């Protein structure tokens, strides 16, 4: 799934709040597109998991019972069932007198009397131990003591038992396409016979076979709270039928427990049939509907699915876990008014993961109702969260891969027919490139990409039917900025990577979600480089992904990439994993590892498609576990097989990066200071880093040391590499300077996931080389990002940070020619971030105006150097001359100029509003923001444009402009919009977050609004209160992260106590 898209302002966004809560995102006209991002491993994992048939081999830790290694020689109760019994302690026990062997009576009577005194005591102790052990075992098995039956009727774990392994689903769904919008369905779940109880990826065969031979009273599966489950029936392998005795629903765990009429062995059950129904509501989870308006203000309906992570159960009863793969046959019937079905043209479509069967479409009429039936081909073996179906008025644009082997279609609502080509062109380039990269052909006949009007995330990688938010797929050439196009291309590339990494091979459990999302987040840059090589995507990774991860992972409340299993059981815990750690840190660590394994070559766009040792390892992994589940250790082992590097163990090296949170700070310090005989020698060391400060490193504490591959540049040398895997430097991590003005820049190209600090005099040398352009734009960005984090951690002075930012603003630009420029986009990305973040912290200071004047002068000088006002005036602000990254830079500088009051830019923004539809899309948001902030009249004009806009990118620009206001009356107007139909439920969080991020007053007023309206907001965002979701919890984190008073802390604690069922504890701590 693509990241949970929300939109926030650039560079800490006018008040720097982004750096306070770990959220930074992509620039659009100088604005970020932002994402809402929460003892020994296995501690707390309850004993008895194996007895329940629950396998956790996805974790590196082996979970065993305390007594598992001891041969206790416990009685086999079935073996002794025929022994005559008496009652003792309320339980049946053997009559010991009948058990005496013949040799007993051959003993002398006195000896027998002696033994008779001792043996009863020993027997009693032994019997008591047996009773206790048996009772404990019975409780674990869920059955009554002595029953011999494994009853699941009291099941109370979030994780389903493995007694029944689904093999195939037949799903029949009927949708009433008019009020009351009801769904009726029937699902038949077929189970694997005993000899198929095997999962290659996680080797669960032994546990599953054992479970399949036990008698059990109940079947446990998932069913959403929205489902009304009707009749239930069972068919045995011998053809016999059985009904249910009773049922129980666990609302918290969304599980339906069905008791059989009599105990059975799981291997006897052929399939279960359930009927169900539910209303089709606007919830953006499970199977849901959405309403949208066309340019004539006519309302239309479209229905779609969003199953990940745990919402397939809201569409049909199922075994809704990633490690319970099956294949699916779907039949969908839609009941529409006959008048609607017979219109011309009729653009109504029903799409599924797979194509229609031959002759799979039919229509009949039932009075005034048209009944359309769609029967689809079976899916490949896959997890439930990948099931998808879409219906509504849709049009398509189609192309083919490999002479028709794969049919690729991009779909949108009819008025977006002209916005489909960019995504299609990207897809047909990226798909074959991935096939070549992974060495595995795409396994399906068709691939549909569908733009959904109401969609919470950026996109969802359903196999064969990828669904997208409209702004993440559609590109309107008149309204899309360069960053809009980049975002759409990136999202297409991300989801296509999932076709292999996530769909073909799926993580065994959600605690390894980074295997899916982190890998796709990294590979997406390869896809963008294939589709649009002129973008220089490899140079954008540091500012768009890696730096976000460094911020998100700097908190004490961060989590490791490989999350402890017991922390990922409930749906709200799983929901919370879709964050900046899983996506951005996962991608950054994978990129760092590939760079090391490829000798640094993979950092260059020329080598992104090389089948280097890393990619060969990925291909090995995918081929070995295709159509199965796997865990992270199996991934690392596959890489290790292909590493071919002396003294390098992938699993050992990567463990520190995946098994614990945070990352190191690499310190560069003088080992020998410059003197008359030499220019000095520098050494490297590492310490654990957090936002609140650095920790200490000790060789005796393995949790304080990381495996750190590094590369550094000096004034005259580049690409010097090494590994720091100890606290302090050794000979391999020493830098001997060669001249008086020589410098060292560690982590050149930002391939490593860590921060770097330098001696003060070295920061000064770096500052000088930033100003002259000797240090690249990417490395300038890295230095500023590190410096800001070091200031927050009290490791660096604010004056050093400002000196670096000011030096960056004075860079000597090369090759500025008409129609093109060498771009400093990455450098200004973080220059602007630093300027904005510091301004936010000075908002109530008496120095605020002086500081703004200082920044305004620096920004204006850069705008003049780039000749931005003159070039925009020459084109009536309708186009920007230059290449892709240069246009991004102009958008960023224009936004900064508007914010800080640079006269030429500010005047151009104000005068351009009347012609906004023709203004270059890279600066259009800044024009809208300037007008919305101008007062009530301007605000109303922007609101009117928002209400009539059709293009998704344009609507987002306008909505976020409305959220960027700073006066109390306009903030109130914007907050009042949040609960109205004007703001779609998918946009509520981004809108409120933008208001909170635009000023301190906006943050205060947004917090009050959240406290007063949280229940209503939760219901709007989630489509009801019957679901557990952390969506709004992340908004609370964003709004409150800028507070620092005891009063606010007390309010947040009170708020958490009231809503803690909807706010994961890690989000609260953050």
Residue ranges: pLDDT <50 for 5 or more in a row? Answer: 6-110, 134-147, 197-206, 814-821
User: How does the helix and strand content classify structurally?
Assistant: alpha+beta
Binned, the helix content reads: 25-40%
In percent terms, what proportion of residues is strand?
A: 15-25%
Arithmetic mean of pLDDT: 85
Number of strands: 34
Strand order of the largest sheet: 8-11-10-9-12-7-6-15-18-17
Major sheet: 10 strands, mixed
The number of helical segments is 31
The geometry reads as globular
**Assembly context of the chains:** single chain
Q: Gap between N and C termini, in Å?
A: 24 Å
**How many whole angstroms does the radius of gyration measure?**
32 Å
Question: Can you tell me about this structure?
Answer:
There is one protein chain. α6 crosses α8 (513-531), α15 runs parallel beside α17 (798-809) and α21 (884-900) packs parallel to α23. The model is unreliable at 6-110, 134-147, 197-206 and 814-821 (pLDDT under 50). The protein has 31 helices and 34 strands. β28 (681-690) and β29 (693-694) form a beta hairpin. It has a ten-stranded mixed β-sheet with strand order 8-11-10-9-12-7-6-15-18-17. The chain is α+β, with helices and mostly antiparallel strands and 1070 residues long. The protein starts with a strand and ends with a helix.
List keywords for this structure.
alpha+beta, 1070 residues, 10-stranded mixed β-sheet, 37% helix, 31 helices
């Amino acid at each position: 799934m693509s990241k949970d898209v929300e939109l926030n302002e650039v560079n800490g966004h006018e008040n720097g709040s982004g750096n306070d809560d770990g959220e930074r995102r992509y620039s659009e006209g100088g604005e970020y597109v932002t994402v809402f991002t929460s003892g020994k491993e296995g501690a707390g994992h309850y004993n008895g998991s194996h007895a329940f048939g629950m396998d956790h081999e996805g974790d590196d830790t082996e979970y065993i019972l305390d007594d598992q290694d001891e041969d206790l020689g416990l009685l086999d109760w079935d073996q002794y069932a025929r022994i005559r019994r008496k009652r003792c302690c309320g339980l049946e026990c053997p009559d010991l007198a009948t058990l005496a062997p013949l040799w007993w009576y051959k003993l002398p009577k006195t000896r027998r009397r002696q033994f008779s005194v001792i043996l009863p005591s020993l027997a009693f102790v032994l019997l008591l131990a047996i009773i206790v052990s048996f009772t404990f075992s019975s409780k674990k098995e869920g059955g009554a003591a002595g029953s011999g039956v494994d009853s699941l009727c009291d099941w109370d774990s979030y994780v389903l038992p493995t007694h029944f392994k689904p093999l195939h689903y037949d799903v029949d769904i009927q949708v009433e396409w008019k009020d009351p919008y009801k769904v009726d369905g029937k699902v038949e779940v077929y189970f694997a016979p005993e000899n198929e109880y095997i999962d290659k990826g996680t080797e669960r065969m032994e546990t599953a076979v054992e479970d399949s031979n036990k008698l059990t009273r109940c079947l446990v599966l998932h069913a959403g709270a929205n489902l009304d489950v009707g009749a239930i029936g069972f068919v045995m392998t011998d053809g016999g039928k059985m009904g249910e005795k009773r049922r129980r629903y666990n609302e918290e765990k969304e599980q339906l427990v069905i008791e059989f009429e009599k105990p059975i062995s799981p291997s006897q059950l052929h399939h279960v049939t359930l009927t169900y129904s539910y209303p089709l509501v606007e919830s953006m989870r499970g199977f849901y509907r959405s309403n949208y308006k066309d340019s004539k203000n006519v309302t239309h309906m479209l229905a779609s699915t969003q199953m990940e992570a745990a919402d397939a159960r809201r569409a049909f009863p199922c075994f809704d876990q990633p490690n319970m793969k099956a294949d699916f046959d779907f039949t969908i019937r839609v009941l529409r008014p006959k008048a609607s079905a017979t219109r011309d043209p009729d653009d109504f479509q029903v799409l599924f993961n797979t194509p229609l069967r031959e002759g799979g479409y039919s229509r009949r009429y039932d009075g005034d109702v048209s009944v359309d039936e769609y029967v689809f081909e079976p899916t490949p073996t896959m997890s439930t969260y990948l099931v998808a179906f879409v219906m509504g008025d849709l049009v398509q644009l189609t192309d083919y891969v490999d002479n028709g082997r794969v049919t690729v279609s991009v779909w949108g609502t009819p008025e977006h027919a002209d916005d489909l080509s960019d995504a299609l062109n990207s897809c047909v380039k990226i798909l074959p490139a991935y096939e070549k990269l992974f060495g595995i052909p795409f396994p399906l006949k068709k691939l549909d990409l569908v733009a959904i009007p109401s969609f919470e995330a950026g996109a969802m990688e359903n196999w064969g039917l990828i669904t997208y938010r409209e702004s993440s797929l559609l590109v309107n050439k008149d309204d899309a900025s360069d960053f809009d196009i980049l975002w759409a291309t990136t999202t297409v590339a991300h989801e296509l990577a999932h076709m292999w990494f996530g769909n073909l091979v799926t993580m065994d459990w959600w605690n390894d979600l980074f295997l899916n999302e982190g890998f796709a987040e990294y590979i997406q840059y390869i896809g963008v480089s294939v589709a649009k090589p002129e973008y220089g995507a490899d140079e954008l990774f540091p500012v768009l992904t890696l730096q976000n991860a460094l911020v998100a992972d700097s908190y004490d409340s961060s989590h490791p990439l490989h999350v402890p299993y017991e922390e990922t059981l409930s749906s709200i815990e799983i929901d919370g994993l879709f964050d900046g750690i899983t996506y951005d840190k996962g991608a950054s660590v994978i990129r760092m590892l590939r760079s090391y394994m490829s000798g640094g070559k993979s950092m260059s766009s020329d080598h992104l498609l090389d089948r280097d040792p890393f990619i060969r390892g990925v291909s090995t992994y995918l081929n070995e576990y295709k159509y199965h589940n796997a865990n992270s250790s199996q991934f690392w082992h596959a890489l290790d097989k292909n590493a071919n590097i002396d003294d390098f163990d992938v699993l050992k090296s990567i463990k520190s990066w995946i098994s614990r949170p945070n990352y190191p700070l690499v310190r560069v310090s003088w080992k020998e200071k410059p003197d008359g005989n030499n220019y000095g020698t520098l050494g490297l060391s590492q310490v654990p880093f957090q936002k609140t400060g650095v920790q200490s490193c000790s060789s005796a504490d393995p949790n304080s040391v990381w495996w750190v591959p590094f590369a550094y540049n000096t004034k005259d040398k580049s690409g010097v590499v090494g590994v720091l895997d100890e606290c302090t430097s050794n000979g391999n991590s020493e830098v001997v300077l060669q001249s008086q003005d020589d410098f060292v820049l560690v982590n050149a190209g930002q391939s490593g996931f860590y921060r770097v600090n330098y001696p003060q005099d070295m920061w000064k040398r770096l500052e000088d080389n930033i100003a002259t352009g000797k240090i690249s734009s990417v490395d300038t960005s890295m230095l500023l990002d590190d410096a800001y984090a070091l200031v927050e951690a009290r490791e660096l002075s604010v004056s050093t940070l400002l000196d670096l930012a000011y030096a960056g603003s004075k860079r000597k630009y090369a090759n500025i020619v008409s129609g093109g420029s060498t771009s400093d986009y990455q450098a200004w990305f973080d220059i602007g971030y630093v300027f904005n973040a510091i301004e936010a912290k000075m908002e109530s200071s008496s120095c605020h105006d002086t500081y703004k004047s200082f920044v305004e002068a620096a920004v204006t000088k850069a705008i003049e150097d780039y000749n931005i006002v003159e070039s925009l005036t020459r084109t009536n602000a309708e186009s920007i001359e230059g290449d892709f990254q240069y246009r991004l830079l102009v958008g960023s500088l224009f936004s900064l100029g508007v914010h800080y009051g640079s006269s030429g830019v500010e005047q151009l923004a104000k005068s351009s509003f009347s012609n906004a539809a023709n203004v270059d899309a890279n600066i259009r948001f800044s024009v809208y923001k300037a007008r919305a902030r101008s007062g009530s009249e301007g605000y109303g004009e922007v609101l009117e444009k928002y209400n009539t806009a059709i293009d998704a990118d344009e609507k987002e620009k306008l909505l976020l402009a409305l959220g960027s206001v700073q006066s109390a009356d306009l903030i109130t107007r914007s907050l009042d919009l949040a609960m109205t139909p004007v703001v779609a439920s998918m946009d509520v969080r981004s809108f409120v977050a933008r208001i909170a991020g635009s000023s301190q007053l906006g943050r205060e007023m947004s917090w009050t609004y959240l406290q007063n309206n949280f229940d209503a907001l939760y219901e709007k965002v989630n489509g009801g209160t019957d679901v557990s979701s952390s969506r709004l919890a992340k908004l609370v984190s964003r709004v409150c992260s800028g507070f620092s008073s005891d009063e606010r802390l007390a309010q947040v604690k009170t708020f958490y106590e009231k809503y803690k069922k909807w706010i994961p504890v890690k989000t609260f701590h953050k």
